[in-house]
């Protein structure tokens, strides 16, 4: 459900049948009115898009997503199809592609499993099995290994402890130190157990205690004691425990500051967070980098007007 933190909200004067007619007209005849498609779909919530999809099929006897795919192309097509996919199904599809493609896209596994709530993860597991006929955990185990795999599997259970255990805060901070900086070698099992199972509220207090006791942030300890995908996953878990919007603000900034913009990461985050916490992400982005997310997208995508405009509408929520 869209709360005040999201940028895409229910369109006030919504009429599914009329929207279906607008889309049909935009795709009818020679040429496609891509601007009409953009304006309509980017200003409807995902729930409303599903109603439009049903109305389109009832009226015209065709699947709306298939019709859109036949008329559009490139990044714009990918973005519109993503917007037409229910959020949990979208996450499940991203995980399936990450696991079933050539190689494993560990960045997608990390992003989704570190940032989603326990309830969302449990729903993703159900939808994944329904839509792809297999168990997500089995597919992850088959494509990953070591301590990276263990932490992914723990996160996949969606069973973090609830609330704060005051008696364990300082003990957990001490154990995190003892497992990393405080010994020769690293006790990854201990790090994984605490980071993967404690509630975010509890972990924030543990990280504060860690800094007070040892004078540095937990991120510095992880960076010094782990490497590769395990390091990336642990850092993502820590950052999401501290602030999910800040985590995504950093990810968006990184996607537009690499050599060559990472459009898939940019699109994935903009779509998946549009009805979650995009306004908070925008605020974090401005605070962290001194520029607006909206303007940064505009600058990065001047050559791709439709893709640019759609992301900008999602960012601004001006059409909601």
Automatic annotation (TrEMBL):
Q: Which GO terms describe its biological process?
A: negative regulation of coagulation
One GO molecular-function entry: calcium-dependent phospholipid binding
Q: Which UniProt keywords apply?
A: Annexin, Calcium, Calcium/phospholipid-binding, Repeat
Q: Name one GO cellular component term.
A: cytoplasm
Supply the PROSITE patterns for this chain. ANNEXIN_1, ANNEXIN_2
Quote the Gene3D superfamilies the UniProt record gives.
Answer: Annexin
Family according to the record: Belongs to the annexin family.
The record's comment about this protein's domains reads: A pair of annexin repeats may form one binding site for calcium and phospholipid.
Query: Would you tell me the protein name for this molecule?
Result: Annexin
């Amino acid at each position: 459900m869209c709360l005040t933190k999201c940028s895409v909200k229910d369109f006030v004067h919504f009429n599914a049948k009329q929207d279906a007619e607008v889309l049909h007209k935009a795709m009818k005849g020679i040429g496609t009115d891509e601007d009409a498609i953009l304006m309509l779909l980017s200003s409807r919530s995902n729930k409303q898009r599903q109603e439009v999809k049903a109305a389109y099929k009832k009226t015209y006897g065709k699947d709306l997503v298939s019709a859109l795919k036949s008329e559009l192309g490139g990044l714009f097509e990918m973005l519109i199809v993503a917007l037409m996919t229910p959020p949990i199904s979208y996450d499940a599809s991203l995980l399936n592609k990450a696991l079933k493609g050539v190689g494993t896209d560990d960045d997608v596994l990390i992003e989704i499993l570190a940032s989603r709530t326990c309830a969302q993860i449990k729903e993703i597991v159900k939808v994944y099995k329904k839509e792809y006929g297999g168990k997500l955990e089995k597919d992850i185990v088959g494509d990953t290994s070591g301590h990276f795999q263990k932490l992914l599997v723990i996160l996949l259970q969606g069973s973090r402890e609830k609330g704060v255990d005051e008696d364990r805060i300082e003990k957990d901070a001490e154990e995190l130190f003892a497992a990393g900086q405080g010994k020769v070698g690293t006790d990854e099992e201990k790090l994984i157990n605490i980071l993967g199972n404690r509630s975010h509220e509890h972990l924030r207090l543990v990280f504060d205690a860690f800094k007070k006791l040892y004078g540095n942030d937990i991120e510095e300890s992880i960076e010094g004691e782990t490497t590769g995908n395990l390091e990336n996953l642990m850092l993502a878990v820590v950052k999401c425990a501290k602030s999910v919007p800040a985590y995504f603000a950093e990810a968006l900034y990184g996607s537009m500051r690499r050599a060559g913009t990472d459009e898939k990461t940019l699109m994935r985050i903009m779509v998946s967070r549009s009805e979650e916490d995009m306004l908070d992400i925008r605020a974090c982005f401005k605070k962290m980098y001194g520029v607006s997310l909206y303007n940064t997208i505009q600058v990065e995508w001047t050559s791709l007007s439709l893709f640019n405009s759609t992301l900008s509408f999602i960012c601004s929520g001006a059409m909601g």
